[in-house]
Design brief:
Elements: H1 6-19, E1 23-26, E2 32-37, E3 43-50, H2 65-72, H3 82-91, E4 95-100, E5 105-112, H4 116-129, H5 134-152, H6 155-167, H7 181-185, H8 189-199, E6 205-211, H9 215-226, E7 249-254, E8 260-269, H10 276-287, H11 293-301, E9 307-313, E10 318-327, H12 332-345, H13 354-370, H14 375-389, H15 394-403, H16 407-417, E11 424-429, E12 450-453, E13 459-464, E14 471-478, H17 491-499, H18 508-517, E15 521-526, E16 530-537, H19 542-554, H20 560-578, H21 581-594, H22 607-612, H23 615-625, E17 631-637, H24 641-652, E18 675-679, E19 685-692, H25 701-711, H26 717-725, E20 729-738, E21 743-751, H27 756-771, H28 777-794, H29 798-810, H30 821-826, H31 830-840, E22 847-852
Parallel strand pairs: 2-6, 7-11, 13-17, 18-22
Antiparallel strand pairs: 1-2, 3-5, 3-6, 4-5, 8-10, 8-11, 9-10, 12-13, 14-16, 14-17, 15-16, 19-21, 19-22, 20-21
Helix pairs in contact: 1-13, 1-15, 2-8, 4-9, 10-13, 10-16, 11-12, 17-23, 19-24, 25-28, 25-31, 26-27, 27-31
Length: about 850
Amino acid sequence: MARRDPAKADRALLEGFWREPVERTVLANGLTVLVRPDAASTLASVQVWVRTGSIHEGDHLGAGLSHFLEHMLFKGTERRSGREISASVQAAGGYNNAYTTFDRTVYYIDLPAERFESAVDILADMVLHSTLPEDEVTREKDVILREIAMTQDDPDSRLWESVFATAFREHPYRQPVIGHRDVFAAVDRAALMGYYRRRYVPNNMVVVIAGSVDPGEARAAAERHFGAAPRSALAPVLVPGEPLQLGPRRLNRTDKVEVVRAALTWPVPGLADPGSPALDLLAIILGGGESSVLWREVREKRGLVHTIDASAWNPGTSGLFGVSFTCDAGLRQKAEDAVLGVLARHARAAAFSPAQVRKAYRQSLSSEVNARKTVSGQASRIGMAEVVVGDLDYGRTYFGDLARVRPADLAAAVRRHLVPARLTSVSLEPPGEASAKPPAAAHSGASGFDEVRLPNGARIVLQRDRRLPNVHFRFLTFGGPLAEAPGRRGSSALLATLLTKDTRRRSAAEVARAIEEVGGSFTSFSGDNTVGLAAEVLPTDCGLAVDLIAQAVLSPAFAASTLATEKRAHVAAIREENDDVVSLARRLARRLFFGRHPFAIGSMGEEKDVEATGASDLSGLWCRLLVGEGSVLGVAGDFDPRALVPRLKAFMSRIPRGAPLGPGPAFRPRAPEGTRVERQPREQAVLFEAYPGPAIDAPDYYAGEVADELFSGMASRLFERVRDQKGLAYFVRSSRVACRSAAMFAFVAGTQPGKEDQVFEEITAEIARVAAGEIPDEELRRCQVRLKAGQRKALQANSARAMQAAIDTLQGRGPNHSARYDDLVDAVTVGDLVAFAKARLRPESRMRLVVRP
């Protein structure tokens, strides 16, 4: 019998992608059009890739012109006002957005496939005919200045901005994409318009159309809407190379953080270098998951860090290989020394094994599969190949090179690149020296879900979808704040993490190694209402996924050493979340609003409670939650039911009988006490305005769904008035938190200190407008179309469909409840929104919070 070659079998999984036709056409004006039809989808993604980013800004380097222009292209054209752009996208059921990087700016609309040409029309109008109105330039400049300030409130953004500024001395990568505050503030409309006219020309653009479209119709649409724009002179932009780094560089900053964030980087060649695939595999082996070398050595064995990972970033002619980690104050240098020690040992010729290379290759292959789960992801892969790499067949070539990497190549890469003389070390650390304690189914293109109910009450819901060689398993039970004892808040989230670690058959290291060797993932999740496990694998590895979930669910070990490590990491995550002003404000608002109800504390819990939680607490909690009536396993993807279902039944039948967690105590809103003000050392203010909302089974739940859309988004009246017309806030939107017994409907905004009352007044005025029924039918219809299209988009991936079906089943709605989403949303009337506003958004039940400097 011939021996099976696993590498060839793996590559065969991707051959289908590489054989997929991508039709490439260059119009007479130089515009490149790429079309990738996908008849199985009901969606389309239309993207415009402009070959310009922050490194191309020439005399205005560091001003953030590319990012500024990205904002401005939504503000109006010769044919449409800014509001008409947003309204047109929503009317087509689309979702639009854009992003700017060092080397490109991308605009995209995802929408139902039958309306794809409207996206081509809108995007062509934006990128070719924007007018950059003077008043909008002034207003948007203020918005971006606040965005820069908000960026400075994000410790991770501050860290990486410092990394790039330190690691690069000549290359434009050292300048932030968003620009420096003072340089950006000096930009005027003339500079912006000049940059727009120089760079936004058809011969500097690529249009990508992916989804259920006819290639001929797609090409014709691109010709109609882009073809009349003339080819223009396009002068090359000089991008200086980065000189060889001859000595180590270091920047250790004291900052307003609770957890140390650190990054170690080394310069590496660009994407075209023959050694690039080895660097990619090296990053995965060193820091790609919980069985990676650095995770096991520095976190698990030595307990010096809470998180650690590695990356190889080299999109152009030069890049960085990085190791980043978080740790407690006082441990940064020890952690850095440990990382460097690991690298020194792995510079030896025999440091890496074929098994490690195989596992990293498998993880890369899975990442490639995952990147193509949505039509937007497919379009992005095509655009990346064309614009960044310059070769549509790059994926095939890259994986061929990846398969040829050997262990000796990895050690050689360490010796060549990760040398002490070229190290750049940057960190953000808390002020002072803390004690060095140890670190703490609708529109899917597939049929609906089938449900299997077992004698013990447990349920299995399955959807077979063979379009992608991928299978997702999602096991969940009730959990979260309603399940937790006083003094043990956060134990559900900690429990979920521990379930993916030690079992009676495998240690945590063996669990991580087993799943990562096949390029799969095995993770936990916890939220306000549920806890559980998720495994995702290639079809040939379903047996391993079921085995890992079954062992985790039925025989968790809650090992003392692992528990101690994860408790420290959990506490660090809470502190890290508090470093973000919006997350901190949300935590404070929730506590203030819900009062004594369990929902006052989010799923992450409280530091002191997590630190007090022991193995017996977790074991007891799991015994209460793991009952047949409260257990659901959702499966979606390319599997063989005849082989898989018996294994699932055998596993789920072993769950003990029992009644599931109840809905929790009734929620009684507190009387409003005026506006609570919390002072924090931040640059921006964040405000919350909260009201009692509909619980998840309330009759007006879907009215709340539409109301949430009505108050949010770039085309909402609230956003338009608060941000675009008055320039009062960088962001403003509504949000919801709900369980079976309590819920909160809230407004949140980020604004300049001193303008909070004006924002509150605008929110009050918008609520009054809705309560008065001043909602045009067209506005309601746009919200409904956008919600329905968003639901399609959200449920493209197997993981999302398995999760949605499992949650709906657990909460008594049935696994195919999402198929009713369109009808439930369409059934909401203006009268329902009026009733919602009058009943729910009343001043006498309002809570206000401001977090400000």
